[in-house]
Amino acid sequence: NDDTISTDVTTLAGSLLEKMPFEDGVFDTVIITQVLHHLADVLAPDRFKNITNLFAEIKRVLKPGGFVSINTSSHDQLAAYWFCVALPKAFATIKHRMPSLDEVRKRLEEVGFKDFTVLRDDKPLMGDEYWKYEGCFSEDYRSADSIWSLACDEEYA
Fold first, then answer.
1. Cα angle value 99/31/12 (rounded, 5°)
2. Do residues 99 and 36 lie in contact, with contact meaning Cβ atoms separated by under 8 Å?
3. Which of 7, 21, 40, 141 sits 20 to 30 Å CA-CA off 83?
């Protein structure tokens, strides 16, 4: 039992496109997982501006020396998904929405993050469920995955 670990956890439902309702420097840690591609504005001249704004907001609410964890997929990790060959249009769409790791690094630096590390984890986010191809026949499975949810009718045929 470690008394230094806090169990005080705050969750918030809201829009990541707006200012967070918190004072500056209040969080020890901010974690975002598989969110960045949902923030891309593919019609804007700078399709990743919302991501830069989110990073600035995270920087604002993070305590000095705080920790931020961003889980996202690299373009080559996306290309390695077993189903991308079967869903070329959906794959192209998600790749366009997903910033490259260099782009993520650049945006973090733009808002003042320094001394950060990019770690690559090649384990599937879905764990062993990733390898169960029969999942793609389930509506729940497909609607819960960003690539499958973008598949058009002809890709299902």
1. 110
2. yes
3. 40
